[in-house]
Amino acid sequence: MAGTSGAATPPPAGSGGAGRGAGPAISVGLLLACGVMAAALAMGLRQSFGLFLAPMTAAKAWGAADFSFAIALQVLVNGLTQPLWGQLADCIGGRRVVMLGAALQFAGVLGMALTDSLLVFTLLAGLVVGAAVSAAGMPVIMASLTRLLPEKLRSRATGLGTAGSSFGQFLVVPLAHVAIAGFGWQAALVIVALTALAMIPLALPLNDAPAPRAAGAPAEETAREALGRAFRTPSFWFLFFGFWVCGLHVSFMGVHLPGFVASCHLPAAVGAGAISLIGLFNVVGSLGAGEISGRWSRRGLLVAIYALRGVVMAVFLFVEKTTASVLLFSAVMGVLWLSTVPPTVALCARNFGTRWLATIFGLVFLGHQIGGFTGAWLGGLIFDRTGSYDLMWSICIAAAAFAALVHLPVKDGPRVALARA
Description:
Elements (H helix, E strand, L loop, with lengths): L6 E2 L17 E2 H20 L5 H8 L3 H29 L1 H21 L3 H18 L2 H11 L2 H33 L1 H12 L2 H4 L20 H9 L2 H30 L4 H26 L4 H21 L4 H14 L4 H12 L4 H30 L3 H17 L15
Antiparallel strand pairs: 1-2
Helix pairs in contact: 1-6, 1-7, 2-3, 3-4, 3-5, 3-16, 4-5, 4-6, 4-8, 6-7, 6-16, 7-8, 7-12, 7-15, 11-12, 11-16, 11-17, 12-14, 12-15, 13-14, 13-15, 13-17
């Protein structure tokens, strides 16, 4: 990448990220490598939980809806706490927040492995791990990278970070499947818990804590002012509800695609392979979206992504379900999976600046996670009531059409927060 041999320095005053990165400058390559690997672990570990549905419900005589509710609650808590962690990261830097989240995730997943109570499991998986994956998750990492890098590299870095998270899904999910098959679900959860601790050293370069304001410098926009401005802007709400649809799709398929594959009487390895393949092909989609976001209309890119999702799901709903058709669907869907993230982050930064980016994008991400809660829980509820996922696929197709339409009015111009005199 051009410019990766230089040092990562905070953007100039007025760009929305002034005063960041008070520590010594580090190479852009090291910053990107650590950010990408941290995002990879964060996404890979989170997406592996769907593999535990079948073995845990069989071992403990829980229903699919019981397990799905715990994971859906995790997704919801992830979204509800994201603005809080985001504001904390805006105030003290992403490094400390990611480290705290990794430690909390270790404790929560370890507790999930050891408890026999459905209530305790739901509280740990839903509340504790939900808050943990929010702190040590992609929004905080992406906001830190965006602030620490010059504007010309931001879309590319966001694409790389999103691609890295997808590669983590591709790598970690099959390893979790192997661990479950070889050591049992309980030992596999312990391994997941220990792996979460690796995010602590990877967070060290994310030193975007704000430097003390110099004497006589103009006052910055406060978090309350920035949020008030966002809430009064229609584009914020268009992005919020569009990202709700993204969360609906991602969580439904992330949690239930292995179960859907099993309901089609295909081998369990096909379900794990489908999730893995989505992660692999989203590397291509995320990198492409990052590059396109720096060159083309971000609004138009989001409209195209959601419209294509609807078409792909509609075709998949009616074709015969074979190993080949499932894997082909997963590959195509993978290209569209998290390719929504680079243009969404770019639109947040261009409309609202980077000073409170983790907070504002955290609120947009809340929409994603509310949709994720809906997709994860509703998928299990519909399957328990009807014995089929067909109705849920139809809901996802209709939601894709809604998302494509709701992004059409989004403003794609550079409205940023300026310092106040």
